[in-house]
Design a protein that fits this description.
SWIM-type domain-containing protein, flat, four-stranded antiparallel sheet, alpha+beta
Length: 221
């Protein structure tokens, strides 16, 4: 129930937000959204005094604090702001003004008011009585499928997934401790293993291994 209430609160907030922004979009009268209309005007005013030279009809050299090259056909400026922000920089707008074109022709539709209205065109529909208890009939209950035991011995190994490779365990030799073979196929000389000095269990459990003379003689032989 708590998860359903949380999801419904999120749905309500999104529904109200989209309704508010549809109303904002309906009142937009400019080609660009108000935020980018102000930004465009500020960038155009910044480059009014800059000198612009034409190299070819689509390539320009703009003299600002630093000299930049603007390519209107490929929407490139050497200041890289046009590429990063996808919005014409001051140098590009100065070049556009030089050829007496409209800046809107070089601006992505993403920044237009029409695109803003299309983004919030569809509405989130209300869901009434989401928290009302719904009676579930027994006939509507979906039970898990009945699993029938297959004939034959069940497989002892797991079926590998597609693309999964079987991991092979490496055999190690008890003699030389190397991988790839066992003690029977080892070509190295057998290593000498000194006999253990441990006492039989019946002796160690009955006598003191330090003080009893019988145990001392057994250890020295």
């Amino acid at each position: 129930m708590f998860a359903s209430a949380l999801l419904d609160q999120i749905r309500r907030k999104i529904m109200v937000m989209m309704a508010d922004r549809r109303e904002i979009g309906a009142n937009m009268m400019t080609p660009l959204t108000p935020e980018y209309e102000e930004k465009l005007e500020a960038l155009q005013d910044e480059g009014l005094a800059w000198e612009v030279l034409v190299a070819i009809p689509t390539v320009f050299q703009v003299f600002s604090e630093r000299t930049h090259m603007v390519d209107l056909e490929h929407q490139i400026c050497t200041c890289q702001r046009w590429r990063v922000y996808c919005f014409p920089c001051t140098h590009a707008l100065a070049a556009i003004r030089k050829i007496k074109r409209e800046a809107i022709d070089f601006i992505s539709p993403y920044f237009t008011s029409d695109h803003f209205r299309k983004t919030y065109l569809h509405a989130i529909q209300p869901i009434p009585n989401y928290n009302r208890h719904v009676e579930i009939k027994e006939d509507d209950t979906i039970n898990p499928p009945i699993v029938k035991k297959q004939p034959g011995r069940p497989p002892g190994k797991r079926i590998l997934s597609k693309g999964e490779k079987k991991v092979k365990r490496k055999v190690h030799c008890n003699n030389c401790k190397e991988a790839g073979h066992n003690r029977a196929g080892c070509k190295n000389p057998p290593k000498y293993t000194p006999p253990s000095l441990s006492l039989p269990k019946f002796i160690s459990a009955t006598f003191d291994t330090v003080t009893h003379p019988t145990i001392l003689s057994y250890m020295l032989t």
